[in-house]
Amino acid sequence: MNIAVFCGSSRRSRDTYLSAAQTLGNAIAERGHTLVYGGGRTGLMGAVADGALDRGGEVKGVILDAFIRHDVHHPRIQELHSVSDMRARKAGLDERADGFVALPGGLGTLEELAEILSFRKLDIHRRTLVFLNTADFFDPLLAQLERAVREGFDDQETLGYFAVTADPVEAVALLEKRAGS
What does the alpha-carbon distance between residue 86 and residue 126 come to, in Å, rounded to a whole number? Predict the structure, then answer.
């Protein structure tokens, strides 16, 4: 399975988040899956890639040309595809993924997971997103998604497009389970 991970690349990421990202990368590799991510070497991006690489896993990145010029790409990953803009980057991640995991991040991460959820609602794909809810990071967003259902903006089935866990190993297991159903 190719598992796309959306996450932050900030060098200011808390150790709690970095540890969860590394454990997720470990689990992806140990269970024989391929990590697909934004191609960076800093923050949670670097931690998830290092985690997979440390366990002998395959890692594929889709990164902006500008990030390569700024030398923030990961030098050890097996495949790095460079693109000119964020739309192409998101498309590159999407087309390579069998499922998705969202770790904490900023606006870029929020944009990526919102697009994946909205495409699921539009029936463009049937893949699952797992929120890795480390330190309750996604609680406010999850509450907003539930409110959108209560207020009639989305149907109840929308809440089934994703799963939530605080355990990185369980995040991978949830994708495996949903991919098999």
Answer: 23
- Residue 5 neighbours by CB under 8 Å, 6+ apart: 21, 24, 28, 35, 36, 37, 48, 100, 101, 102, 103
Which 8-state DSSP code applies to residue 99?
E
pTM for the full predicted model = 0.95
Please list the pLDDT of the chain residue by residue as tens digits (181 residues).
Answer: 999 999 998 999 999 999 999 999 999 999 999 999 999 999 999 999 999 999 999 999 999 898 888 888 889 999 999 999 999 999 999 999 999 999 999 999 999 999 999 999 999 999 999 999 999 999 999 999 999 999 999 999 999 999 999 999 999 999 999 876 4
Taking the domains of the chain in order of start, what are their residue ranges? 2-180
For tokens 């889709």, the residue is 62
Q: Which CATH architecture has domain 2-180?
A: 3-Layer(aba) Sandwich (3.40)
